[in-house]
Automatic annotation (TrEMBL):
Alphabetical list of PANTHER family matching this protein: ABC TRANSPORTER RELATED (PTHR24220:SF685), IMPORT ATP-BINDING PROTEIN (PTHR24220)
Name assigned to this protein: Putative ABC transport system ATP-binding protein
Domain ABC transporter positions: 12-243
Entry keyword annotation includes Amino-acid biosynthesis: no
Gene Ontology CC annotations of this record: membrane protein complex; plasma membrane
Matches recorded under InterPro entries: AAA+_ATPase, ABC_transporter-like_ATP-bd, ABC_transporter-like_CS, ABC_transpr_LolD-like, MacB-like_ATP-bd, P-loop_NTPase
């Protein structure tokens, strides 16, 4: 397959993407002609009512799901039409993931969980970058611990470190604070904001929580599979007001 490139300075971009599920009377339009770009170093939250297409959009942007039409690009590479093998290689090098459930390997130490993507790729660790991430995330005295020996917040910090270690073009965070108490969730959101601000990391986060979205640089609003607005420099109040207008 031929790899196409785009010239727009976007970490991730979607152009006129559509996605439907089911057929005939059961067909549901999850994404309806969505075009959106996420700039390098931005922390963006994706929000909307239940069933608005938030998770579908994230999955399509990350190449975890296919689109029916339109194009998705990560960096300058159009991923639409890539094979599963090509997508796996691209994600391994250019995409990081942070999940609500942490997805740590219970038999591995925190250090080995963080290094796992590099081990799978057969890539050597950049020790200086590793040390910087560990310092920023405050994990220096927890590297030998296994997941069951860590608090929820510490486990999520390990997941954040794992996502950042490969210097991906973008980190996708799917409800990253959903399983955490409010204090620990705040800690993780501050770390994500700092990752964007201090490390230039591009972060795209799906959340239903206006307080979580307030840590982002901007909020993309979805309803019925379409982008219907954006909130710049969000606060919990402005996000709540925007969601209220959508009937969320």
């Amino acid at each position: 397959m031929t790899t196409h490139t785009i010239t727009a300075p976007s970490a991730v971009a979607a152009q006129s993407i559509t996605k439907t599920y089911g057929t005939d009377d059961t067909q549901v339009t999850a994404l309806d002609d969505v075009s959106v770009a996420f700039h390098p170093g931005d922390f963006t939250a994706i929000m909307g009512p239940s069933g608005s297409g938030k998770s579908t959009l994230m999955h399509c942007l990350a190449g975890l799901d296919t689109v029916d039409s339109g194009q998705v690009a990560i960096g300058k590479t159009v991923i639409t039409g890539m094979s599963d093998h090509q997508l796996t290689i691209l994600r391994r090098k250019h995409v990081g993931f942070i999940f609500q459930a942490f997805n740590l390997v219970p038999t591995l130490s925190a250090r080995d969980n963080i290094l796992l993507p590099l081990d799978l790729a057969g890539t050597k660790v950049d020790q200086a970058w590793f040390d910087q991430i560990i310092e920023v995330l405050g994990l220096g005295d927890r590297l030998a611990h296994h997941p069951h020996e860590l608090s929820g917040g510490q486990q999520q910090r390990v997941a954040v470190a794992r996502a950042l270690l490969t210097r991906p073009d973008v980190v996708f965070a799917d409800e990253p604070t959903g399983a955490l108490d409010s204090a620990t969730g705040t800690e993780v959101l501050q770390l994500l904001a700092r990752s964007a601000r201090d490390m230039g990391q591009t972060i795209i986060m799906v959340t239903h929580d206006p307080h979580a979205a307030a840590y982002a640089d901007n909020v993309v609003l979805l309803k019925d599979g379409a982008i219907v607005g954006r909130v710049e420099d969000p606060t919990a109040d402005t996000v709540l007001a925007a969601l209220a207008e959508l009937g969320a």
